[in-house]
Amino acid sequence: MGIILASASPRRQELLRQVGCNFTVRISDVVEDNHQDLLPQELAVFHAKAKAVDISLKSSVDDVIIGADTIVVLDGKVYGKPIDIDDARCILTHLSGKEHQVITGIAVVKAGKAWTDFVVTTVKFGNLTSETIEKYLATGEPLDKAGAYGIQGIGVLLVEEIKGCYNNVVGLPLYKLSDVLMKAGVPLL
User: Crossing angle for the helix pair 85-95 and 130-138, nearest 10 degrees?
Assistant: First the structure.
């Protein structure tokens, strides 16, 4: 039995390494569609499960596949990764001075069975000036992250307050993942 992370995210990989998880990475071909008629938490779980199932179909039946998807939600609107710098600028402008939710869906697939769950964390941005947004965009950091920011990097300077799981905002809520893996019979500890 091997553990496979169905994600290219270096942040998720780093979090799994942090807890001593021995895993390999296989990137799913699933294309995320944030415009489906699902509640945000259902959407995040749907994407996570689709990624894990996709990789499970190309793996040994004994492998354990971890899928995850992180989205940012403000006033019911879902923000994934920005498509370009203009989209990132728009997202950061919308998030400025407001509370938003970061939702990560988790799926574990083993022997054709799936276990899923999600975590919601509330993040409040400070009031961002256009100069602050432009300086942050110039770092390049926002372009590959849901909500156009990385709390584990320079983006932490935009965050005034966080309520909930920090690792969820990074992209992989380890406590919840450990719980889901335990239900699948694969303890992390």
Answer: 140
Query: Taking all residues of the chain, what is their mean pLDDT, rounded to a whole number?
Result: 95
Q: In sequence order, which residues have a C-beta less than 8 Å from that of residue 103 and are 6 or more positions away?
A: 40, 41, 44, 70, 71, 72, 73, 118, 119, 120, 121, 168
Looking at 63, 69, 87, 117, which residue is catalytic?
69
**pTM score over 0.85:** yes
- Containing structural domain, residue 171: 3-183
What's 49's domain CATH number? 3.90.950.10
Separation of first and last alpha carbons in the chain: 16
3-state secondary structure of 172: coil
Mark whether 69 is an active-site residue: yes
| Pairing status of strand 24-25 against strand 3-5 | parallel
